[in-house]
Amino acid sequence: MAWRFALMIDPAASDDARTDFDATFTEVDPSAPALTVGELSTQRGDGIFESIGVVDGHAQEVTAHLERLAHSARLCDLPAPHLPQWRAAVGRAAAHAGAGESVIKLILSRGVEHGPTPTAWVTVADAGDFTAARTDGIRVVTLDRGYRLDTPAQAPWLLLGAKTLSYAVNMAAIREAKRRGADDAVFTTSDGYVLEAPTASLILRRGDRFTTPAPNAGILHGTTQLSLFEHLEAQGHEVGYDTIPASDLATADAAWLVSSVRLAAPVTAVDGAPLPVDRDLTAAMNAYLLSPRD
Ligand code: PLP
């Protein structure tokens, strides 16, 4: 991955009335070490993050990403991020993104062990090439996430609705999917409902209705899914949040995994059984997702 830019942030208190945050930013060499060995993000994955898609220098859906960062911070008992400060940092980062597709990452960690403040930083890197996933599609397998649909409400300390830095399990699920001859995974609950993919939201189409699993604390509320649902609704389609039995995935008229950087990847097979792909609709979705969105 080509890292283009990195900015360390001295996090402002949420009631800080400043409007100019330049003094709180320190540009660092993105290819040089920048964290201390006591960092809790690296020792424990104790922190939260966001990945924002950038197209030709325009950072997409910044408000939705900042709102989810604040939501994750609340769930993790981290100090509330000062959103105008983070927005200013995103602006600084986007200016270094260049032409084509890039990704801005926002990271807020609990900080250094026994230290006084969180550690925060922003990076910009070139995005990968997702043309094949967007046009030819991806094969998925369903993988049991090992908890029931009602577990998140009963065990909020599992932080299931927060975008935490602890993604080792998500990455392990993608490796398992590849071992099974697929490209990606769709998590299911132990009582048989679909949830999300390790790094994407799931959208199904049945007739003219688009549906996605309700973000009831067990999954992230995807910014791409939200944006796409608004667009589909404006185009006259019906959209909705449902509790979706796992068996509905293989019988859907079409399905996609959607996320900020890969965008809409049509699902071509579920557990080895083929699923129809609507190439024109997928191309229209990706054209919308690549257009400047706020
Ligand atoms: N669900 C999970 C677990 C994710 O990691 C992601 C994105 O990385 C998403 C859903 C999709 O979120 P977004 O559309 O905001 O990228």
Automatic annotation (TrEMBL):
One GO MF term: lyase activity
CC terms in the record's Gene Ontology section: cytosol
Presence of the UniProt keyword Ligase in the record: no
InterPro entries associated with the record: Aminotrans_IV, Aminotransferase-like, BCAT-like_C, BCAT-like_N, Class-IV_PLP-Dep_Aminotrnsfr
SUPFAM superfamilies in UniProt: D-aminoacid aminotransferase-like PLP-dependent enzymes
This protein's record includes keyword Lyase: yes
One Pfam family named in its UniProt record: Aminotran_4
Top-rank taxon, per record: Bacteria
GO biological process: carboxylic acid biosynthetic process
Key words, A-Z: Lyase
The family this protein is said to belong to: Belongs to the class-IV pyridoxal-phosphate-dependent aminotransferase family.
PANTHER family named in the record: AMINO-ACID AMINOTRANSFERASE, AMINODEOXYCHORISMATE LYASE
Name of the protein in its database record: 4-amino-4-deoxychorismate lyase
